[in-house]
Design a protein that fits this description.
By secondary structure, the chain is an alpha+beta fold. The chain contains twelve helices and 17 strands.
């Protein structure tokens, strides 16, 4: 047999089998790795697509949220106001930044960056809230200022510019510019300044008289106007009618509504009223008001009211109360009242102002005269009447009808004397009363008062205790040569 027909058997080294098996295993591992890599890549692509979809959904949701908010915010704001227009522009920028920050926040893990994104979102939401409230509130006050007549400013029930004395001018200029009342201004400008979560409004201008002004209003301070006195543009001027009414309860008679006899001098007097050069008038049966007693009663209520005002601690309303309601003028609170450091002294001063204001209002319709340099208020049931005019002295003192009679150095007609008697007769018909007749001295010199009383329709002399009928009283006057009156 040949070699090729019966080849020899060659025994291979066992190591070769192992090497071959190793190559096979390596090939299988590489194949598996490639397969797994492909699977991971497909999974990553799938996750990436899901992430992109998720981000897009988040972006759509954020955009919808802010677009709705912006739309609602715009609808609630007054149109045409420069503050609103500028704040709208700033707000749109902040909304875009907040939307981007919300999306970035979903993927960011760095603590510092996350904090920055959160602040951006917080500032935007704070700005939206403050801008919305400020826009509506300021627009309302500006409209109120524009529609309030000048005569109603600084009067009870009206409005006052909410500012201390030093800033009153530029605050008023601010209101004029924002209200469009710029006829006295050569130029003016309104600018919003971004402060992050809030903003300020800078109002400046030049008046036609050459003076300039600049005022910066912080929106947050403006909205915190209750109590601090640094906020809102206007302050309501309180009406103190209820206090006045309460303080007079014990002074006025419940049935008649007139001053109780407790607060009237018991003496009835005839009072000549001040004349402006025309006809002279006098009040018959008048009584003096007891000023000290009346003020004392008002003061009791004023002390209680003053304590209530100061306990509230509202600077703006207290300033308006003192300067406007109590009519102390625009500078009194800041230049006088605020400098009183002791609370008890402040209370005493406010009580005094309330007392004086209530007394002034109460007595505004009472007739007054000045006696010995002191103002006297006349009340009671006295009746006013025209004082009969004196005639020239006549050489003859006799006659009848409407002839002249010499009485106490002056000459009167019978009609004039009859009018005196008629006037006292009316007093006699009312019941109790008292009046004074002046008895002139010789040749019309200084005289003395003689008091008469009215009782049961009779006139009684205080000196002689004689009861007169009206006719007897007329004759008595003629015999005494007197002229009734003070």
């Amino acid at each position: 047999m040949g070699y090729y027909e019966n080849p020899p058997i060659i025994n291979m080294n066992p190591g070769a089998d192992k090497i071959a098996a190793g190559f096979a295993n390596a090939a299988n591992s590489m194949a598996e790795a490639l397969i797994k890599r492909g699977d991971r890549k497909r999974e990553e692509e799938k996750e990436q697509k899901l992430t992109i979809k998720k981000l897009q959904e988040e972006k759509n949701k954020v955009d919808l949220y802010y677009n709705d908010y912006m739309s609602n915010w715009s609808k609630d704001q007054p149109q045409g106001n420069p503050i609103i227009e500028q704040s709208k522009g700033l707000l749109q920028q902040k909304i875009q930044m907040a939307a981007d920050a919300r999306i970035a926040l979903t993927m960011e893990t760095d603590a510092a960056k996350r904090q920055s994104y959160l602040k951006t979102i917080s500032d935007a939401e704070s700005f939206m809230d403050i801008a919305g409230k400020f826009g509506k509130s300021a627009a309302g006050e500006i409209l109120t200022y524009k529609q309030t007549p000048g005569i109603a400013m600084n009067t009870p029930g009206g409005w006052a510019v909410n500012s201390d004395d030093d800033n009153l001018g530029k605050t008023t200029d601010t209101l004029n510019v924002l209200a469009g009342m710029t006829q006295d201004y050569e130029s003016h400008n309104v600018e919003l300044v971004d402060l992050g979560g809030t903003f300020s409004v800078k109002i400046s201008g030049k008046k036609k008289d050459g003076t300039t002004f600049e005022n910066v209003v912080n929106a947050s301070d403006y909205l915190n106007s209750d109590g601090s006195g640094t906020g809102g543009f206007l302050q309501k001027v309180e009406n103190v009618d209820e206090f006045r009414k309460q303080s007079l309860k014990s002074i006025l008679d419940k049935e008649t509504g007139k001053v109780s006899s407790t607060f009237l001098n018991p003496t009835f007097e005839t009072v000549k009223l001040p004349s402006g050069g025309g006809d002279a008038y006098e009040i018959v049966g008048a009584q003096r008001l007891d000023i000290n007693a009346i003020k004392g009663k008002i003061r009791e209520e004023a002390v209680i009211k003053a304590s209530g005002y100061l306990r509230g601690g509202d600077t703006a309303s207290t300033r308006a109360l003192i300067n406007s309601t109590l009519e102390m003028g625009p500078s009194y609170y800041d230049k006088v009242f605020k400098k009183i450091e002791n609370v008890d002294l402040q209370k005493a001063e406010l009580a005094r102002l309330l007392e004086e204001n209530a007394f002034k209002d109460f007595t505004k319709d009472y007739k007054t005269t000045v006696i010995n340099g002191e103002t006297v208020y006349w009340g009671g049931d006295g009746k006013p009447r025209m004082v009969p005019k004196e005639a020239k002295v006549s050489k003859s003192s006799t006659g009848t009808g409407n002839s002249k009679q010499k009485v106490g150095g002056a000459v009167f007609s019978n009609d004039e004397i009859n009018r005196y008697v008629q006037m006292y007769g009316e007093l006699a018909k009312t019941g109790e009363g008292q009046f004074v007749v002046n008895v002139p001295g010789p040749q019309g010199g200084a005289g003395k008062d003689e008091t008469f009383f009215v009782e049961n329709g009779k006139i009684i002399s205080d000196k002689s205790n004689v009861r007169f009928s009206l006719t007897d009283f007329k004759n008595y006057l003629r015999s005494k040569k007197t002229k009734p009156g003070l």
